[in-house]
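Hey, sorry to bother you again with one of my protein questions. A protein chain has come my way and I'm curious about its shape. It would help a lot if you went through both lines with me. I owe you a coffee for this, so here goes:
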Amino acid sequence: MSAVSALPSIRRTPWALRGAQFLLAVPLGAFQLIASIVFTFTLGITRWWEVLIVAWAWSMSSCCLVIGVRLARSERMYRLAGIALAAQLAFATVKLTVYHESASFVFGGFVLAAAALLALSRRGGPQAS
């Protein structure tokens, strides 16, 4: 028996899943949360309905941060990631149409890349913990 076969097998998390985790946790989670907090306190809330937009941004980016960290641990997180990415895409559309922010193109790209990576990671079969 060779030394290689005596080693226990270690299942590694697929690169596509790690990429999706990174995109959810960092740009769509932590960065967006910090940016929305900074924008809220520096620019202020000028219209009553902007409170809803701020609540949407804070809750959505917080959820993306948590989902990104926990994605490889649970099958349920895949479904939540899909919902969070749909909310992110809707939010990017609001930022583009209402606020005319070109940054929504960048975040839309992050959303589409994360969705593609999630789809690629699902094709590989059962995931490692």
